[in-house]
């Protein structure tokens, strides 16, 4: 992610950050190939953050990101969170991600947690209070994958 933003505006987690007990990490595989991954960060009893969600270049536009996002929302709901937030880049590189999040109902919000206003960041949130977990998520078959 180094090429997408200045160092002070990069918030993706490295391996050490992903090992934090507040983080739960999932990956999607097609045989031996990593198709994508996503992480959920516990912030408070009612608030979680989507962290480090990515799709491998080889699996873009094959439904991996939508399936992972659906899973993260489902998991946050099952864990009893009422709000799910995220930070993503404001640059053109992140336009597809912002469209995906908006299509799932995420709306712009002010910085949350330890974030500060940053022209390179877009903050979004989704109210999931009272939502029932969506049973349609199937972590094995992804569209176009075997």
Task: Looking at this protein, list some descriptive labels.
single chain; 146 residues; alpha+beta; Aminopeptidase; six-stranded mixed sheet; disordered C terminus
Number of strands: 6
Largest sheet geometry: 6 strands, mixed
Count of helical segments?
Answer: 3
Our measurement of the CA-to-CA distance between the termini, rounded to an integer number of angstroms, reads 29 Å
CATH class: Alpha Beta
Largest sheet, spatial ordering of strands: 1-2-3-4-6-5
| Overall tally of domains | 1
List low-confidence stretches: 135-146
Mean pLDDT: 85
Helix content bin: 10-25%
CATH topology: Aminopeptidase
Give the overall shape.
globular
What is the string of helix and strand elements? HEEEHEHEE
Q: What integer value in Å does the Rg equal?
A: 15 Å
CATH superfamily: Gcn5-related N-acetyltransferase (GNAT)
Structural class: alpha+beta
Instruction: Quickly give the CATH architecture.
Output: 3-Layer(aba) Sandwich
Sheet-strand content, in percent, reads 25-35%
What can you see in these coordinates?
- Helix 2 (64-78) links the parallel strand 3 (47-55) and strand 4.
- The chain is globular.
- It has a 6-stranded mixed β-sheet, covered by helices on one side.
- The chain is built from 3 helices and 6 strands.
- It has a single domain (2-127), classed as Gcn5-related N-acetyltransferase (GNAT) (Aminopeptidase, 3-Layer(aba) Sandwich), CATH 3.40.630.
- It has helices spanning 15-18, 64-78, 95-103, and strands at 23-30, 33-42, 47-55, 83-89, 107-108, 121-127.
- With 146 residues, it is α+β, with helices and mostly antiparallel strands.
